[in-house]
């Protein structure tokens, strides 16, 4: 799977929508979709925000984003 599988897993496990996550970290829903699907890579600032909200380590987010 390309993209950030851990992010997709977190969304599914928590029942959080892409819209809810987008609002929480102040990006658009299409941006979240692009990250999940590997179309774009989050900036360092957004990786930090994602980690803070989801509890997914920055290391894992970076590793998965780089592999996309």
Q: What does this molecule look like?
A:
The protein has 68 residues and is mainly alpha-helical. The chain has helices at residues 5-14, 18-25, 29-37, 44-54, 58-67. It has a single domain, classed as lambda repressor-like DNA-binding domains (434 Repressor (Amino-terminal Domain), Orthogonal Bundle), CATH 1.10.260.40. Helix content is 71%, strand content 0%. The chain is globular. The N and C termini lie close together (8 Å).
Task: Give the tags.
68 residues, mainly alpha
Lay out the secondary structure.
Blueprint: H1 5-14, H2 18-25, H3 29-37, H4 44-54, H5 58-67
Helix pairs in contact: 2-3
| Helical fraction | over 70%
Strand content: under 5%
The counted number of beta strands is 0
Apparent shape: globular
Q: How many helical stretches?
A: 5
* Alpha carbon gyration radius: 10 Å
Terminal Cα span: 8 Å
The CATH topology is what? 434 Repressor (Amino-terminal Domain)
Concise description?
This protein has 68 residues and is mainly alpha-helical.
